[in-house]
Write a structure and sequence with these properties.
With 182 residues, the protein is mainly beta. It has one helix and eleven strands. Strand 5 and strand 6 form a beta hairpin. The N and C termini lie far apart (66 Å).
Length: 182
């Protein structure tokens, strides 16, 4: 009876694998541990770009899509920055947009003195190097760090992005929001 169940199980697995478009690929192993998370990845041209995090900070990994080999890995956000191409711990990572000719890294922070939540962007070229400095692109006046939010949306053709800011709301009043397109 066990043989019958085993044969039926193998036939079902075979049928499921054949009915799906099953792709398998491999790449060069990159060092990771239990605390490594892949946050996002995207393809621009012939390279695959990956944002990952671990205990030390956030990394940008660049892979060759043809050979599936690691071309470079760069720490860009850390608790203790030792280079100019690094963003310190006071900025919270929000999102990455993979544009046609660059990578945009979005961060936010809260300024207690000014009571403002601020959104910043860092442009990264396709070699993984920062272009220019971290630039503030939006802000929300708020009394608490937890109030207000930003949303970032990328156009379908990867040439523009839109920021939606949602300031804190007042009870029983209309909700406010704003749009900016870059």
């Amino acid at each position: 009876m066990r043989k019958v169940y085993a044969i039926i199980g193998l036939l079902m697995v075979n049928f499921v694998c054949m009915s799906q478009n099953f792709n398998f690929s491999y790449s060069q192993m990159t060092p990771s541990n239990l605390f490594t998370n892949i946050l996002t990845a995207g393809k621009i041209g012939e390279n695959i770009y990956q944002i990952k995090s671990d205990r030390k900070g956030l990394y940008l990994d660049i892979f060759d899509s043809q050979k599936m080999s690691l071309l470079s890995s760069k720490l860009f956000k850390a608790n203790k920055c030792e280079s100019s191409d690094c963003i310190d711990k006071h900025f919270d990572y929000i999102k990455t947009s993979f544009m046609k000719d660059a990578i945009l890294l979005f961060f936010e922070t809260y300024d207690r003195k000014a009571d403002q939540r601020m959104l910043f962007v860092q442009k990264v070229n396709l070699n993984g190097n920062f272009e220019g400095k971290l630039v503030q692109i939006d802000k929300i006046d708020t009394k608490k760090r937890s109030e207000g939010s930003f949303r970032v949306w990328q156009s379908e053709d990867s040439t523009k992005f839109m920021i939606i800011n949602n300031p804190p709301f007042e009870k029983y009043n209309n909700e406010k929001f704003g749009f900016k397109i870059y």
